Amino acid sequence: MAGLICYLSNLLFAVSIVAVGLLLLFFLARTREVLLLFLLLRSSLDISKNYFSVYLSDTVQITGAIVLSFVLIIGGVIYLLANRKSFLRPPLAGIFLIFLAIAMIHFLLVEDLRFSLMEFTRYFSAYLVYVLVWNLINNKSDSRIFINIILLSSLLPIGAGLYQGILNRGEYITGFMRAYGTFSHPEPYAFYLILILALALNLFFYYRRRGRRLALTALILAALACVLFTFTRTAWFGCLMIIFFAACFRQKRLIWVFVALLLVFSLLSPLRSRFYDLSTSFNSLAYRLSIWRGGLEQMSEILVLGRGLGSFAKLDILGELAHNDYLRLIFELGLLGLLAHLILSGGLIIRLVGLLRSKLEEYDFSLVVAAFSVAVFFLTAGTINNLVFRTVLQWYFWALMAVALKTASGVKDPAR
Hints:
The protein is mostly helical. It has helices spanning 2-29, 31-41, 64-82, 93-105, 113-136, 140-152, 155-166, 186-204, 210-230, 233-249, 255-267, 269-272, 284-296, 299-302, 311-315, 325-356, 362-381, 391-408; strands at 53-55, 61-63, 171-173, 176-178.
């Protein structure tokens, strides 16, 4: 039996290698179409590791998400070099590369190089998504295709979330049965839904066709329900933030939706009880504070240089992530890494604000408002959560940023 299992494992590995090779060839031959396919599927792949994966060892597992990242990195670099596309052409790409270079320098300091490389590839793949999407958008039609794919990517995660929430089939965490959709945890699932909500809500005011508006309304309501089912307080705050920005920039009457959601959070006992644990002696905030305290106690040793990507979890007693992007960055990449991230984030916000103040077509304006709302939320949520190195979140975040910035830069409709 052991021999059979070993044989099947090797056979699966061989099949996986062939599949990856074929997928890489398809990527190089039809880069735009395969990238769109990746964006369509990526939101549904994290949960697949429980059902479809190949173990190379007790600690090394090949999953669908890893395969997509590998193909994207290898194929993306080859595509950009072969087609003489600049790695620096998109806005802020230079700062992005500086951040990645700082992370690479820390390979010399890190204790677990393999784990650090894995963390590096997460963010590097997000950078390639940003550069590739920017280069592959040539007109408004391309922009709409990418945005539609991002919205369509939510159908399976939302369907799974509704099933888990309505039938009480989620994951029992912190005293609540929480929906996680097709993700590995309720929190990244909830943050992904905030991005979908921002897009759907702002595009609702752009489209005039009844069918489009009905479809977006259904998507908005289903996504909102799933966010509630995740019992993720930061995401609930994100819903209010998204609606508030939409009310400011798109439709002032949305302020009543904002008020209605506040009442829902205040009056519904299951939602209200999610905040009760903050008054107890040990709660999620206290747990985060204990993790931060452990990191800060070692901060004086690594303030300038940092210990390298992935080192925070390696040094934490329980192997926990920092639950704070900024603390993690200064711990792992030092002051230079944190500064590069802040410049990248600040530069993005400044560009989006500049576009909001300029004269844009209505579709372009809708995308920029959505991108601005998501960027502000992600930067805010990063103070108490892990977002920067969540591959699935960063793929969709930077895909949205690339579409919004490229579209607002003046690409035209192909018919014009």
